[in-house]
Amino acid sequence: MYIFVNALKNIGRKKGRNILMGIIILITITVSIVSLCINNTTNSIIDDYKLRFGSEVTIAPDMTKVMSISDILSGEGSKVMPTSPEQYLDFAKSQYLKESVITATTGVAGDGIKAVDEDENSNIMGRAVLSGAGSSVEDDYIMPTMNLNGNQWDEFKEGYRKLMDGGEMPKNDNECIISKELADLNNLEIGDKIKLKSSIVSIENNEQKIKNINVELTITGIFIDATEEYSSPFKISSLNRRNEILTTIDTMINNFGSMMRVNAKYYLKNPSMLKEFETELRAKGLDEYYLVRTDEAGYQKVVGPVEGLRKISLTFMIIVLIFGAVILMVLSSIAIRERKYEIGVLRAMGMKKNKVALGLWIEMLIITAFCLILGFVVGSVVAQPISDMLLAGQIESAKIAAQQGGMMAGIALGGPIEKELIPLEQVDVSVGMDTIIEIAIIALFLASLASIVAIVKVIKYEPIKILMERN
Amino acid sequence: MNILSVKNVTYQYEGAKKVVLKNVNAEFSNGKIYTIVGKSGSGKSTLLSLVAGLHVCSSGEIIYKGTNLKDLDRDHYRAKSIGVIFQGFNLLTNATAVENIMLSMSISGNREKNKKECAYDLLEKVGIDRETAGRKVLKMSGGEQQRVGIARALSNNPDIVIADEPTGNLDSDTETAVLNILTSLAHDEGKCVIIATHSKKVTSIADEIWGINDGRLLFVKHS
């Protein structure tokens, strides 16, 4: 106890030296707290995004490879084997997956029912597209005015769509739900049957061929839709989200087979399983012209600035720690003449070496503990503005890099259309338990470092030698 | 009764050619004042350092209460059995007089609950009042510092008090006061007081006078 009391008194006895030491320790600790706060927060953000971006696998044609096949350009048809809906479903059974979402969509027209905003313009525009392709079969072609979507329930989970009372989600084949607007327009109720038709255009021997498909679905529910009607300026009924008829994926496969657009999202149990998953897909017949990949670009776009911020804060902390440690060692060496005499007196009085060393160490620990508390206060106040400032710089750099990279991307081909990703513009920096533990270790290290020179003297010299030198 | 025996002690500083103490023999008893006289550099302080356990003799042995110092924990010996009054005081200069005494008491393992009061009492005994006792050592005169040094040497209630030139820096009045304290320690409290000195005034209070010449300790006379 007296060692602690003496250490405490010693701090007050040598104010000048201890204040100087304290300032160095405070600066080092504050910078470390800010850096560790940023580092730990960004680490958890990065880990989270890594898991999200790294685990979501998309399968899409490798357009660079596809375009390199001269047969396509010469019009002889593609050598690329399309992936069938059955294959997509088979892929979903992989042991490497934690989850998979397979959705399908196809354009349809009503047989006896009208789509919302359906007018002549829609058909005119649609036919214009077909005519532009040089078709001679436009009279047989059924122009889609609506969309039949399989397994697209995201908006219900997100709360943008809600089933009205009395309705049920489709469970069995050939069941569907429709929007309230579509139901009102056609006086449809739950239990009514709707007829839909669709045309599939294929090219055989350089000739377009039309295959018409008719489907009859039972309405099991009507939903209220809070999504935007149109996501583009083109007011074509087939683009109106009120004209989306929602059904099961099995209904889609049974009626349209490979004649529909399938979108499959697979979520790996762990991002590191990508290679094994791809090997399995190839073994299950995935064509070599398909890419199996995670959204690396999206990850870089969103997390890149945060990673830059983490690197800067970590580098800064290491530099400050090194400088702080060196300055503390120098200050300790300068202060040792005075300390040496004190050590000699204490040893001459019979104080054991380990107790003298403990006293010196406790002294530094008390100073460091004080700086630690002050550092936490200062650090937690300045961490957020510093983080914002550094992140703003990183986002700016990322934008410049993206602009330069975008020019190249415009030339390159391939891959699915990238989502509109917004980089993280705000990192909520906070002092977590991991930060507290890390900074406590750093503080302990600094305190030990600052007292190590004196402790070495204690171990090295006999008390009488120190006193004789002084006297 | 002998409390301390010095037997055939030889001492040579590390790396030095000169042998400072040559085959020194002496016996010290409780209740007596011993003075060791000799020229500067004759080895007086070295002998006291050896007795105080601050140095270890090159050969020979120092026996304290029947045990060789080499077999004792020297830190423990210094803390509990010996009180040293240094010529240069060797006090903690940034601490107050009372803090110096209290720290010494703590090091010696004194379990007294009110150490501060004990420290004040000790300081009063050597002529330091409470107000002066609360001042930093650095702001005290040489005489006051020497008294604090004496009080500290007594704070662990040692059997042996060693004083190296205890009056070397003091004026005549203070010297007399310090000598009175040392005499009282030996004759009233039964402690063994060993003093190294040049001063005739100091030797005048001695029960036994020893001289050192060329590293050899010689008995000079009884008082």
List keywords for this structure.
heterodimer, A: 471 residues, alpha+beta, six-stranded mixed beta barrel, 14 helices, 17% strand, B: alpha/beta, six-stranded mixed β-sheet, four-stranded antiparallel β-sheet, 8 helices, 10 strands, 28% strand, globular
Descriptive report:
The complex is a heterodimer of chains A (471) and B (223). Chain A is an alpha+beta fold. In chain A, 55% of the residues lie in helices and 17% in strands. Chain A has helices at 2-13, 15-55, 63-67, 70-73, 85-91, 120-132, 154-158, 180-185, 249-256, 274-283, 296-348, 353-411, 433-460, 463-470, and strands spanning 56-61, 97-110, 146-150, 161-163, 175-179, 193-204, 207-225, 244-247, 261-268, 290-294. In chain A, a hairpin with a 2-residue loop joins strand 6 (193-204) and strand 7. In chain A, helix 11 (296-348) packs across helix 14. The longest helix of chain A is centred in the C-terminal third of the chain and has 59 residues, at 353-411. Chain A is elongated, with a radius of gyration of 35 Å. In chain A, 34% of the residues are buried. In chain B, the strands form two sheets. In chain B, strands 6-7-8-3-9-10 form a six-stranded mixed sheet. In chain B, strands 2-1-4-5 form a four-stranded antiparallel sheet, with helices on one face. In chain B, strand 7, helix 7 (172-187) and strand 8 (192-197) form a beta-alpha-beta unit. Chain B starts with a strand and ends with a strand. Classes of the chains: A alpha+beta (471), B alpha/beta (223). The interface between A and B is medium-sized, with 23 and 26 residues.
